[in-house]
Design a protein that fits this description.
Elements: H1 22-43, H2 47-70, H3 76-101, H4 108-131, E1 139-141, H5 145-161, H6 170-184, E2 189-191, H7 204-219, H8 221-245
Antiparallel strand pairs: 1-2
Helix pairs in contact: 1-2, 1-3, 2-3, 2-5, 3-4, 3-5, 4-6, 5-6, 5-8, 7-8
Length: 268
């Protein structure tokens, strides 16, 4: 190697080390813990706490995407992390808890129903990931997995609060598990609420309504929450029927020319 007085040393540029954004992934991990906690509580026979764990995971799952967008920390890692967390909290956990609470008394029909729900949750999440850029962001294609989990866990929670044993309502549990699971993989449109912008100013009355809503939920959380998700779980079929009657397109694929804001960040 020749050297000279006019030779300049060129500094070697190091590639920046890859890392992950801690804030949104902490929220995702908290949601994952909610699902794990629910399974542990079900193993200990505390099905009411198991239901609370899944509902807490739902709240956290709704926050991680918004936190990532607000802080501009979207990433492919976060997308995959969120999807795997959803599979545990809203796929495996409700299926296992429903089986442990009621479905195991039905023999093969029980575990088949639990597996159908779990498999449909996996299919739902996989389809959502690949269709993110072509689905109208105002609607979900099929029942979102958190809402499906809320139907299953809400029923367990309210029955537990009313002192019903799982064996006494095993067949209704099977029907709800199959309904929630199969509805996840349909093309029925469910309103996503993604066009509701939190940054816009709202009338004072809207804040009053929010306060009233919180008060109503606190009257009896299991009944109110389960009732709300039953209505939501049926709303997609009503919307499907209305759009069909009006001759409108019922599939949400390629009905919007705008890419959803959630591209690059999985958000159920």
């Amino acid at each position: 190697m020749e050297t000279g007085e006019d030779t300049e040393l060129v500094p070697v540029q190091r590639k920046p080390r890859k890392g992950i954004y801690i804030l949104p992934n902490m929220v995702t991990l908290a949601a994952l813990f909610g699902g794990f906690y629910a399974i542990v509580m079900a193993m200990n026979g505390r099905f009411d706490l198991a239901a609370m764990g899944v509902f807490c995971a739902m709240v956290l799952d709704g926050l991680d995407g918004r936190v990532a967008r607000m802080t501009n920390t979207q990433s492919a890692f976060g997308e995959q992390m969120d999807s795997l967390s959803d599979m545990v909290s809203f796929g495996a956990a409700p299926a296992l808890i429903a089986y442990e609470w009621a479905l195991k008394g039905l023999g093969r029909w029980g575990w088949i129903a639990a597996f159908v729900y779990c498999a449909c949750a996996a299919l739902r999440l996989a389809r959502f990931n690949v269709n993110t850029a072509v689905v109208d962001k105002r609607f979900f294609q099929g029942l979102p997995s958190p809402a499906a989990a809320a139907l299953v866990m809400g029923f367990i929670w309210i029955m537990t609060e009313l002192d019903y044993t799982g064996s006494s309502v095993a067949w209704p549990m099977l029907v709800i598990a199959l309904y929630a699971g199969l509805t996840m993989v349909t093309n029925v449109p469910f309103y996503s609420f993604k066009d509701v912008h939190m940054k816009k100013s709202v009338p004072f009355a809207a804040i009053v309504l929010v306060a009233l809503g919180i008060a109503v939920v606190n009257i009896h959380p299991p009944t109110v929450l389960f009732g709300l998700f039953v209505v939501y779980g049926l709303s997609g079929y009503v919307l499907y029927a209305v759009r069909k009657a009006k001759g409108q397109q019922t599939s949400m694929i390629s009905t919007s020319t705008q890419e959803p804001d959630e591209r690059g960040l999985h958000q159920e």
